[in-house]
Structure formats: C-alpha cells, structure tokens
Amino acid sequence: KIRFPRLAPRSLRRRPAAPTPRPPRPMASAEKKARTSLFDVNAVKSPNDRNGYRLVQLPSGIEVLLVSTPDATKTLSSAALAVEAGSFQDPAGVCEGLAHYLEHMCFLGSRKYPGESEMEDFLSANGGSSNAFTESEFTCYYFDIHNSQLQKALDMLAQFFIEPLFVASSADRELDAIESEFRRTQQNDYVRRDQLVCHLASKGHPFASFGWGNNESLRARPKASGVDINDQLRRFHDAHYYGTRMRLAVFSVHSLDELEGFIAPFVDVRREAKVAQPPMVWSSYGWPVQQGQLPLFLRVVPVCRRHELSITWQLPPQTDRYHHGAINYVSALAGHEGRGSFLELLKARGWATAVTSGVGSDGYSRNSIVWMFNVSVTLTSKGLAKWPEVVTVVYAYLEMLKREGPQQWFHSEMCATNRMNFRFQEQVDPCDLVQDLVVRMLPHQGLAKEDLMKDGFPMDDAAFKPEYINEILSLLRPDLAIVTLQSSSYSAAASGASDMGASADGEESGSGESGSESGSGSGQGEEEEQAQPGRRKTSGSEKDDDEEDEGDRAEDDGDEAVDPFFDPSTTWTKEPWFGTLFARQPFPDGAVDAWLASPTAQGLRLPDKNRFIATEFALKPKDTGLAPPPEVARYPVRHEGFPEIPSPPPAVPVAAVKGPVTVWHLQVPQGDPLASPRCAILLKVVSHALCGSRPEDKAMMNLWTSVVRDSLETIAYLAEEAKLGVSIEGTSFGFELCFGGFDHKLPLLIQEVLEHLTKTFRSAEAVEKHINASRARFDAMVERRIRGLKNAEMKPASHTTQIRRGMLCSAFPRAGQLLPATEGVTVESFAEFSANMLGSVHTVEMLTEGNVSVTETPQLANIVTTALVNTTEGKYPRAVVQRVPQGVTLVVEPCADPNERNCAVEMYFQVGPYSVEEDLYLRVLEDLMYVPLFDSLRTKQQLGYSVSCEVRETQQILGFTVTIQSASHSAVHCVKCAEEFLRETFPQKLEELSDQELTSKIIAMASRKLTRPDSLQDMASWHWGEIRDRKYRFNRRIEDAASLAQVQKVEINAYFRRWLLEDRRLVVVVSAGGKAQQTVEQTMEGLGGVYPDGWFWKLGGTFGE
User: Fold this and answer.
1) How far is it, in rounded angstroms, from Cα 639 to Cα 1045?
2) Spatial distance between the Cα atoms of 161 and 32, rounded to a whole number of angstroms
3) What CA–CA distance (Å, rounded) separates 695 from 916?
4) 68 phi and psi, to 5 degrees?
5) What is the pLDDT averaged over residues 83-107?
C-alpha cells in the first residue's frame, strides 16, 4: 500500500525562541456569512447517530464537516484534513516520494508557530497526538487533543497550509526519518508485490513511480541531477496545497456554532494554486500494465516463508456505480468461504489454507485510473506443486458465476445487512471517524452528499444492475490477468542472483540496508501482557501463538515444497527500489488455453442463503432487582482542574449465575448511548487436562484451535456476512469462545457451534472420523503450524520478546520447544488430546453483555454446562513466573535470519506481583517517559525507527520494558544510550517537570480513563479482560482515574528510582548476529563492559532464585 502512517509520536526537538503567537482569531460575522451551507447531513445520518453535523464551505474553498457530540465524557476532540494531492503527483523521474516528504515537513514549523516540535509539544502536554499518511491521490493529516485546547490546535494545523517554514536545517533529519520508514517497510511482501507491478507499468504512467521515497530518490538522485529538493518541496506545496482541494472534519463536545468559530484560521488558506496547473485527466493514462503485455506471469522470491498465488485484473474505476454494488457483489462471491466455494474445494484437496478477494481500499488498489481486483490464495506445499490446477479451479468458479448469472437474492442479502448495520450504527473512535469522513468527502471518491454517512455501501434492492456485474465478470479473464507466484522454495535458486546484486535496470536499490519490523498482535490477559483501558497503545502486545507472520523470512524454508514447472536455471531480475527478485516467464504450455476454455470443477456452486441475517431488532425490557455498582473511593485532589469522578459509577457485570458455569451479566438498557440490538457472549473454558506448563500441551492446543477454526469456517463465514462473529483462541488452560453481533440470530449461531464442538471433537472416534473424511485439510493445518513455528523468531523484535517470555514463565514455551510435538503429531494423538481436553472441562466463566436479559442467563448457563462441562473435579491451574534476580541478567542469541540487518534490544525491569498502586504508577511513568525516550533515542540520536517503553503484566507480575530496534547501530551502543537516558536524561526531565506540566499530564490520563467506550465491543473487551485475568475490577478505569487525583512528582520519582535504577531486577535481551553490526561474541563482550557485574543466561538455564 502506498500509505505512510507514523507509528510513534512525532519527534520532539528543542525549538528556537520565538515571540508568543497571537491567539487564534474567532470567525468574523462577515466571514460567517461568506461561508456556504452545503447540505443537511443530519437528514441522512443513521437513526442511531446522536451526533450533530454541519457541512459548510469556507471562502477559501475548503469544505468542512463539523461534528458535535452530546457525550460529555468525550474529553478529547479530533480533527483531520485531507488534501487531494498524493504520490501520483510526484514529479516524474525526479524526487519520487516528494508528496510523502512534504507530509513530514509540514509538521516542522510555520511562520506563526516556528518551533520544529511546537505542535507536538502542545498536543502532548494536553493529552493529544498527531499523525499523517500519504496515499496515491491524497494526503491526510489528523490529531486529537483535550477539548479545552481544540481552538489553538486547529490554528496550528491551518498554518501547515498557510505559511509553513520548510527550514533547511530540519530537512536533512527528516529525510533520515523517510529512509527509516522505507527500511521498516522494505521487507513487507505485499508492498513489494504491489511495487513490482508499479515497476512493470508503462513508462510515464503515474503507477510507474516510487511513492514511498528514500535516501536514493529524495537525496542522492536530486543532488546528482542538480535538483534542489527543498525548492521542489515548495513548488509542490504551491501547486497542490490549496483550499478547493481540501476537506476538513472536526469532532468535539463543543457546539456546532462554537466549532464554526474555531475553524476561522482556515479562511486564510489560499483558494487556488499559486501557479496554475493543467487539470489531471487520470482516465487518459489507461491501464498501468497495457493489454499488449498481458497475460503476465511473475515468479517472485518472497521475504517470508510462504507460497502464495495472486491473480490480479485491472478494472475501470467503479466510482460512479457505487449505488449499485456490482463490485461488492463480485468481491463477496469470489471471496466466499462457505459451501460450494472454490476455497472449500481447494482445502478438501489440501492445496490451500486461505483466500482473499476483491478490490482493496488503499490507493494502489482503488484510484481514479484503475481498480485492481485481486484473488490471493495461500498455498500448501501440495498446492504449490499443483498451482496451474489451483488457477483452473479459480476460473472454474468464475465461469460458474457467469453461467448462473447475477442473483437478485444475493444482492438483496447484501443490502439487508448494510441497512441494518447503518440503522444501528455504532460509534467509532473520534480520530478514526474524522479521518474516514474527510476521505469520503474528497471529490475523487465520487460520493454524493446524501451518501456521505453511508460510505457508498449498497442499500437499495432496486439498484440491482445485472449488466454491471456481468461487465466486471467479463474482464476477469485469463488473457487479461497478472499472475504472481511467490514461493520461498525459489530462494535457493535465486541466492546467486541476490549475492551478485542483479538489478532490473543495472542499479542497486536506493537503500543499502533492509530494516524490518511488523506491528504485532494484541494478545491480552492471562496469555500475556494486556493493554490497560484508557491508554491508546503505541506499540502492540505480542501474539500468544506462533502463527505465520508477514515479517518472517524465506531463507532455509525447511519444507519439501517444489514447483515442478520451475526451471532452476531461471534468470532473476531485481526490482530497483525494494530489491525484490522476480522472473517474468511464460505460462506452462497450454495453461492459458485451458483456462480460456470455460473450465468446470465438481462441487462449485452459489452459496446458501444466509440463515443468520437478523430480522427482529427489539430491545429487551430493562433488568430489575440487580445490586448497584459499589461507589468508587475518593482521594484528596492535588491537581487543579481534575475531572469529576462520576457518582454513581457506571453499571458493571454482576454474577447472575454461579456454579461450574459462572455467568457475569450486564445489560445495556434502552436510553443508554450504547443501546442497540446487539450483544456479546464470551466463554472462558478451563480443562484440568492441561497443566499450563507442558510444551506438548501448548503445541497441541494451538493445533487444536486451528483445526476447530477451520472446521467452523462454513458457519463462521455466513455469520460474518450477517454481521455476527465467532472466534476461538487457545489458552494455557483451555480455550476462549467468543460470540457477538445482532442478538436475534446469535442463539442459533451459539447452538450450531456448540453442537459442532460436541459432536465432532469430544470423542476420539468422532475426531478421527472428521479428519479422515478430509485428511488433506488436516495435513495442511499441521504444515501451516510447522511453518509458523519455524518463522516465529525470525524478526529481531519478536525474537527478544519470545526469549523474555520463555525465561519468565513455563506457560510461554519457545517455538523450538513446540516444534517437535507439532512435527510428531498423528491423527490418533490429536484425537486423544481433543477427547481428553474436552472431557476434562470443569470450569467455564461466561460474560453476557448488551441486549440480553438477566432472565436469559440461567438458560444460557444450562446450554453451556450440557455442551462443555464434564466434571466437577479440578481446580484452576496457575502458572508460575520466575523471579528475576537482583542486578542484571544478560541474554544474547543470534538472529535466526542470517540476512537480517537489524538488531533488537529489550530491557525488562521486573517490578513484582500486581498491586493497584504500583500498576497505576507504572502507567504514569510510561506516559511521562514515552515521548522524551523517543525524542532522545530515535530523533536526536537516530538509533532506529522503533523506540518505545511499555508496562508489562505477565501472569499478574508487573514489569516495564524499554525496546529498541536498529539497523544503523550495534546492540551494545543501543544499550549504552538507553542506560544514559535512564540514569541522566530522564531523571533530569523529572526534576524539571513543573507542577503545571504534571497536572496537565495527570488530567489528560484521568480524562482518557473516564471516557465512555465507543461501542459494545469495546466495553465488553474491558470487562472480559478483568474476567480473563481473574481480577474482577470492572470499574478499574473509574477507580484508576480517581486514584490519579493524589499522584505527586515525589512519589513518581521514588518509584522510578527504585524500580529502574536502585533496586533493579533487569533482564537485557539482545537479538544479534546475521548482518547486524556486531556478532554474538562481540555483543557479549560489549555488554560485559556495560554491566561488569551482570551474568549471562543461556537457553535452558534457570534464575536460581
């Protein structure tokens, strides 16, 4: 995707002295009259939407959508501005990535606010943050901030477009940031695949560009050509950043009239370009890959261990046909996963494990030139060997759709689910909302004003246009396809080309190093650390299992996958920017002719009609007779302006049923902002057959959940299409089963899932029968698990996390411990495990939340008891966390990927058993440290793109981590810099922290915690975390907010010094080696110099304490 999100706060740099800027002026009455009211959005919003809207156009040409919320608990306001200029407008052949570079530079000061970090300083001091991203046709800037400071923040944003400084001294550092972002993305196989198509696009086409930008495109090449990059920057801003191209959305608790006054500064944005530009006629460019080059077949060496077949067709933009939903119709059927789908057939043959289909929402996939319709199939080893037949099955399915013709009933089902979702629309995060709104408002999106709130989803049964569907299907032809086959089995054959530095154009990639880092999952609760409610996560928690991840490397694939149609003597070409090795080759003999001959395959058919679509939406009568929630303790308020703690506090779940199945229940009654005909039902199942510490159990449990999930796919897919959800995840002591969505058909979904579990997986005989009926599917699941385990520790950041977790707790075995049990699994051993695990369930905890009555809970408990509980014997097992010895423990392991250029460091400070007070102060410490840590290590010292700190809670043991990943410095250097920050820089920051600054921070933290959840799902997730962790502090957010009232700097400083300096129990984990800056031996020697009293821990060792 040509999308450039910042994953960490903007750099905080020391800014020059400047006169105090004038406060933003209110909009004059004449200006108010000059603005134009465009459309009454309130007339077309969802009946469930309580916000007030006003859509106006300013004299500067900017269209503005103001959003006023009646929810007084929303303490943060948000704003986003999108300008219709993106990477497609980059100067052809020179300064590629200029639009992205401009996005960065706009943050670094304006004439009115000249400090490089002035806006970010202001936002951070008031509980907010900012970010931006660049797409093919637009760039979006957004921020959030405390309500009281919205007006000034909007003025700061307006100055980006009125008079930015573009200071030359800042430019060079920001180019380094661009380069770091590129390195971080360089190993993403999906981005590499898309860029490969851009590389093959016709010369002069907007696609034939490198929108990301890096040192080569923005520094080296312009310099060699005598081009002043900063002059080009100003030219781009003058030519493309003007009012009629801009759309602004603002969300706040302020009234619409107040908000209209706040946007006065945007009147001063120039209405038109400084230099007139000819209009861009995108349709004149045609397809990126011309028809004369098609069909196109590419073999590609991926970074990850994977075998993936991708078929892409170029379609004319469907923007003007969004009402009719033709593209939605074809995408839904092509991506169908139920009975009669081509995925079901491929799984039955053991050739594939997953499929994705349709047109993406990113600028590469969906723009004013072309829409890229893609079908991607994740292949097994068997599927790789049969890949031409896989393509045949895909075309056979498309031929079936053509023969059957467009179906009115399927279109009507799509419209019905879209209508009910719109009718009972839930709130979303305000920052996400304003981004979505401004993008929808852009002219190239083609949305009529009356459809702005519907986002273009088809809702009218009468808008069914079979001819539009047939037109799309007619273009999904073999002779118009771009087929990409990515396989790690090509790595060995291509290694020589890689070593010789082969290049498509005789050039090396612009970046000499290849950084890699991927966002991680959000594993929570007993399986690992949990993000505390009320704090926006700045880096994700680790995944609990070892599923295949997009950052895993392809080297030494380890399986026996072979493409029998591949010639090992193939000449490889290197794409110049990402360095992707690919070979443009002919299809196997006769393959295209066979695909053109209208192939057929037995078992392919249209999907079943969806039995899960809700038709009743009544809200249940309000519960009565339940005990009110306990009052929250009050503390002396030591911070002026501290927010009011609600009294009485919000309702929380109560134990409605007790016994082997304990049901925690909370109804969302009529009149509540979250009230809707939805509910969430979550189950935590505990089996005494699992002790929580045996690697064999963990390995088998991971495989069991994969097999169960696969067996439920036909049910789960239909449920998902009906806006219901079901998921199953393994834990150390059993599994979690979660249901949610519109409540009318939710009991039917629960019944079918529980019946399937008991009939298919409770007895060994039933399990063996199920597997043997489609043995290939089971083998595919095992293969996927094995590949995932081999990949698990390939990325340095994941590697250090896995080491630390494995050291601390036997409930988190390393991938190497899980692999033998997975490789040795048999049908019989799997069946025995399933029967023992389900036959030993003794405890279930359950949460029912939303549109559900307390009178329904006994019946639900009985259903679950009958289906799952088999014994009353057994107690809840508890994992043991090792106590880290006092002092410093050092762990160094070589990176599993010999080509990895990044090293990673994780410094883990163990605090001790969970307590409310220590957890609270750790959260305060994290909030105070994050920005200066990033500023010092990432921005000023340029250690690497990924620098962060975070509170950890592992099996109710608190800890704190500082993590760094670097492609430019050694691990030893990173550790030295981190220690210098902790011992010198941060103590000084704490010392200089004024009472007013601390108060602002504390108020911002408390306000976040007091903010109501945006949706039922969010609220249920908060409460489920308490059940999962067995803490049951359901009003934790309110209690923590109240406790913040008494926090003082002296206590923060004392805790910091005790935990991180004086009484430290520190583990320093390093992933080193490969092509990083130092070998393992050099790293160990260097760390020994940093920590003379430290001791080295090795795999299999114990702490001895």
Assistant:
1) 6
2) 21
3) 32
4) -110, 120
5) 93
